[in-house]
Amino acid sequence: MKVFIDTNVWLAGRFGRGLCADLLDTLILEQCNLLLDERVLEEFLRIARHKFRVDERTLDEASRFFRRYTTLLPPADTSLPGIPDPDDGWILQAAVIAAADWFITGDKALLALGTVEDMPIVDPRTAFLRLRGLVP
To answer: Using alpha carbons only, what angle is made at residue 82 by residues 77 and 85, rounded to the nearest 5 degrees?
Structure first.
């Protein structure tokens, strides 16, 4: 299964405890192909460094994690049309091009879309419960 994870879920999963951290662990244990777009990686590092004040050693550890457990995608050449936030259009397009089975995000505007070109957009809890076989 190929899963594209949005920045907010990566941040919560790497620097927090709880559902998003458990979700990342489960995705790795299930040997899912975790997709990471260069734009998401840049945003992750920027927010971690400037908003969360994560130190460089911890950021280096996160970079090693990404190199080991993710497939780094080049940025999409075009943005997906009709997306309320134009920045999200680029990221969704990268996920579509990579043929992701799921796009996991906590972004309410993206979740409201439900699907994009047959790719389900799901929140972390739904993804976790589906991986555990607890919901369809």
So the answer is: 80
CA–CA dist 90, 110 (Å, integer): 13
The answer to whether residues 47 and 11 touch, using CB atoms and an 8 Å cutoff, is yes
CATH class of 2-131: alpha beta
Give CA angle at 8 (101, 13), nearest 5°: 85
Q: Is the pLDDT of residue 108 over 90?
A: yes
Q: Which residue has the tokens 């369809």?
A: 136
| Three-state DSSP state, 128 | helix
Task: State if pTM tops 0.85.
Answer: yes
Instruction: Tell how many helices (H) and how many strands (E) occur in the chain.
Output: 7, 6
How far apart are the C-alpha atoms of 90 and 57, rounded to whole Å? 29
